[in-house]
Amino acid sequence: MTMTQEEMLTALYEKMAAEQDKYRDWLKSQPAAEVLNHAYEYTVREDIVMCMEELELTEAQAKALLTSPTPLADVYKDFEKLETSYMDVIRDTIETRANELYQAQEKLKNTPLYPHSAAYASEHGEMAQYNASFQASHACKEAIEQAISRHYRDNRLDAEAAVKDVLERFGPDRVQYVLANTVRHKEWDGRISRDSKAWASTMPLPEGAPQDRHSEYLVVDRCNPGLTDLFLKQVRQLAGEREKPSVREKLQKAPAAPRRSAPAKKKEAER
Question: Which one of 19, 46, 116, 162 has the minimum C-beta count within 10 Å?
Answer without folding.
Answer: 46
